[in-house]
Amino acid sequence: MKEPIRVAIDSDLKELIPGFLENRRNDVRRLHGALASLDFETMRTLGHRMRGDGGGYGFDGISSIGHAIERAATDRNIEDVTTAVEELTRYLDRLEVVYE
Q1: Radius of gyration of the chain, Cα coordinates, nearest whole angstrom
Q2: CA nearest 83: which of 74, 93, 73?
């Protein structure tokens, strides 16, 4: 198994983080549905939200992946969207939150 991705988060956000991460897992499921139906607008919107929200919660990795999804969806590049969604899945699977 690969090393965990440890992210230090302000303890003031502790109650919000589980819901935030569950919403990102739901986004992965929505992105798979959007990929199946070639719904680039949904992919773009979800990527855009992740790009903005990730950093606000301290997850720069989610912001970066969201940006990649948004850009690829805008370009209608299904291969790059798929790669970014797979990266997001791996990121969430390996994520370990440490509160400061």
Answers
A1: 13
A2: 73
Structure tokens at 89: 């899945």
- What pLDDT digit, counting tens, does each position of 9-41 carry? 999 999 999 999 999 999 999 999 999 999 999
57, 9 contact by CB (below 8 A): yes
Spatial CA neighbour of 85 closest among 40, 52, 53: 40
The domain 5-99 is placed in CATH, from the list 3.40.50.261, 3.40.50.300, 3.10.20.30, 1.20.120.160, at 1.20.120.160
What is the identity of the amino acid at 16? L
Please, what's the largest Cα pairwise distance for the chain? Answer: 41
Q: Please give the DSSP secondary-structure letter assigned to residue 11.
A: G
Q: Is the dihedral of CA 81, 87, 90, 93 positive or negative?
A: negative
Condensed to tens digits (0 to 9), the pLDDT of residues 47-88 reads 999 999 999 999 999 999 999 999 999 999 999 999 999 999
